[in-house]
Amino acid sequence: MPDTLPPTENKTAQHTPRPLAGRAAIVTGSTSGIGLAIARGLAAGGAGLLLNGFGDASEIETLRAGISDEHEVDVLYSAADMTRPEEIAGMIEAAEAHFGKVDILVNNAGIQHVAPLEDFPAEKWDAILAIDLSSAFHTTRGVLAGMKKRRWGRIVNIASAHGLVGSPFKSAYVAAKHGIVGLTKVTALEAAEFEVTCNAICPGYVWTPLVEKQIGEQAVAHSISREKVVQDVILAPQPNKRFVTVEEISALVAYLCSPPAQSITGAALAIDGGWTAH
Length: 278
Hints:
Helix content is 45%, strand content 13%. It folds into two domains: 20-205 and 245-277, Rossmann fold, CATH 3.40.50.720; 207-243, no CATH class. The chain has helices spanning 33-44, 57-71, 85-99, 122-150, 171-191, 209-222, 226-234, 246-256; strands at residues 24-27, 48-52, 75-78, 104-107, 153-158, 196-203, 268-271. 42% of the residues are buried. Strand 5, helix 5 (171-191) and strand 6 form a beta-alpha-beta unit.
């Protein structure tokens, strides 16, 4: 018996059929955290990709080239500001010019600010609503006609458990994420007869560098251990007492873009360790 398989049987991952081969995707807020994991997951499925977000130009180029090389797909980058509709339109035009279409849109860009309602800065309210909610309207408006014409499309909006329930001191974020769930339902209803789906994913607390930074800050502010911050503050609403991982969210997005998910539309899918089951 030979020690190795014959060449015809020694197949690599690159030759495995990929369910999103030939598709083109835009993922907003995808230069780090949840968005980057989603982008990598879609590229692994074979989709061409447009990354969007802020960051160091050289680091972003390294990310772009790395994803392209690893998954053998075209990867573009746009620095479009999600508060500016004209830049959003330009981003979509760039994707369509390169790929000829946009099949998948993931609205992930978002920011947060925490303050009592009476002290909440008006400019923070406006910024959060613009980035967390209005940007999803502008991107969806920009790609939906093409998806309908081609009779295929997948739109996934990254909402939050705060799109389903409220928490104190997060007025703008909660309002925006509830709005995203509403926008998701309307989009799904308008697009259903055209084989275009739209769903919202509602994560609980996700392990990201931003959350890790908040844990350290709260430990110092409250003079308690990091472990106590995690269990008694951050994860208090999540019955399973563990963070959602970016890989879990990426896998759910990839599934919603796959053929078996073609009848899932208009849903707000909680991935929150049981938080919203209360």
